Amino acid sequence: MVYFVLLLGLAQSLKRFSMEMSEESGKFSEWQTMEHVKSFHSITLQVGQPPQNLSAVVLMDGKRELMIASVKGANPSRVELYNSTASSSYVRLDSNKWYGDDKAILACDKVSFGKMAAANQTFVVVSLNSKSKFDRAALPLWYDSKNDSTNFLNSLKNSGAVNVNAFTVDFENNLLTIGSREEESRKPEDAITFKLAVDTWTADFATISVKGSNVASNNKVNFALEQEDISGPYDEVNLFKSLAGTNKTCDTGASTCECSEDFKGFPALEFNFSGVIFTVEPRDYFSYNNGTCTFRVSDSGQWTLGAPIFEEYLSIFDGDQGTATFYRYHEIKKEEETPKPAEETEEEVEEESSSDGWIIFAYILLILLIILAVGVLIYCRCMKAATDYTKVV
Ligand SMILES: *[C@@H]1O[C@H](CO)[C@@H](O)[C@H](O)[C@H]1NC(C)=O
Ligand SMILES: *[C@@H]1O[C@H](CO)[C@@H](O)[C@H](O)[C@H]1NC(C)=O
Ligand SMILES: *[C@@H]1O[C@H](CO)[C@@H](O)[C@H](O)[C@H]1NC(C)=O
Ligand SMILES: *[C@@H]1O[C@H](CO)[C@@H](O)[C@H](O)[C@H]1NC(C)=O
Ligand SMILES: *[C@@H]1O[C@H](CO)[C@@H](O)[C@H](O)[C@H]1NC(C)=O
Ligand SMILES: *[C@@H]1O[C@H](CO)[C@@H](O)[C@H](O)[C@H]1NC(C)=O
Ligand SMILES: *[C@@H]1O[C@H](CO)[C@@H](O)[C@H](O)[C@H]1NC(C)=O
């Protein structure tokens, strides 16, 4: 067990060190392309005068201040790092700061996210070394409910660059939008909206349940796009896994279950946010490979919903209203066990069988055509043979 924890820690730190920059550069509009760098998502910030294009991972958990990575001397990283000497607008404010375990400098410079700029943004400059947790800049997606904060998202609002303290995470199109709610093309009735604390991106749930059995009650869940799985307290996670695996062939040690590619027969994990139901589907909490489903669920101090739910939902976090709003990207195929959608299932089956019917029809047509072609060929050969024969005669 201890070894497992150590290995897990090692794997985590290796992941953090081995982030790589994708070759593609960001698009500079009001929204920005997010690149997937190993388990993280990064965007491009332009810092300084003239602007330096710096890759920054986006975070929702823990950190508050914008961190700009720099390096003393030659840059050993494949990622471009900040060179303050090369910026005419750089101002050093304080050299006795810390960013986690890294010694940092408090400074300010011009910072832009796409077309939106904060002319005099304060941030910490960390000179990276091999022990650093990050290999590039880090942008915490955080709003301070007090207006005097100097963090980047608040600066954009205070400088009038954006109208609302909101951001939209669109994993399907790899876009991050700061300062607006990107939901124009969505149906209002599809919105799942509930209250959450914008300082921590944490929501209070009444229950977490599987098919009516409670897994947890009256606690908090954290949203964190930088976390690659879903996690929760050890006992509750195990209870969830055993409920999800009821009547299924599962391997508790390996955290896997035998399954089909459509995850048929597995239940959803339901979060009840004071009456608003938010579901995590089997396709979210499992990863599928060759008949085996592996839980994307690990242990942590409190429930945290990471990348899997951002893959399921377009996600809008609104710092002014103190809400989170989710829109599902793809509908869920209903199963027979849920009472109401029985008709839908039948329709689906009908549709499937009617499309099967078309395929069979096409095959028969094809076979008939082949028979016809072969027939014509034989007929022609016979004719030819026949004429040859008459010639000889
Ligand atoms: C930064 O990226 C933009 C857009 O891709 C590009 O036009 C500009 O030349 C880049 N600047 C540097 C210093 O590489
Ligand atoms: C930083 O910029 C200065 C001025 O442009 C340049 O002389 C120096 O070589 C650069 N440092 C690195 C590490 O690229
Ligand atoms: C930028 O802000 C810092 C403190 O936050 C201040 O000392 C400095 O004068 C400001 N610079 C400009 C150009 O406004
Ligand atoms: C912060 O500013 C917004 C408007 O920009 C205002 O509605 C809100 O009341 C302010 N909050 C505080 C704590 O001053
Ligand atoms: C598991 O199977 C048993 C017997 O086949 C059945 O009674 C029970 O309802 C099933 N439980 C679930 C959660 O499907
Ligand atoms: C969700 O929780 C509320 C209490 O906050 C409760 O009244 C409601 O019945 C629950 N809904 C479901 C579907 O469990
Ligand atoms: C998939 O699983 C089957 C049986 O478990 C095995 O025979 C086959 O080699 C596996 N295929 C791959 C690509 O791993």
UniProtKB/TrEMBL annotation:
Residues 1-16 form the signal peptide. SUPFAM superfamilies: Acid proteases. GO terms for molecular function: aspartic-type endopeptidase activity. The keyword DNA-binding does not apply. GO terms for biological process: proteolysis. Residues 41-327 form the Peptidase A1 domain. Keywords: Aspartyl protease, Hydrolase, Membrane, Protease, Signal, Transmembrane, Transmembrane helix. Pfam families: Asp (PF00026). The chain crosses the membrane at residues 358-380. It comes from the Eukaryota. The keyword ATP-binding does not apply. CDD domains: pepsin_like. InterPro entries: Aspartic_peptidase_A1, Pepsin-like_dom, PEPTIDASE_A1, Peptidase_aspartic_dom_sf. Belongs to the peptidase A1 family. This is Peptidase A1 domain-containing protein.
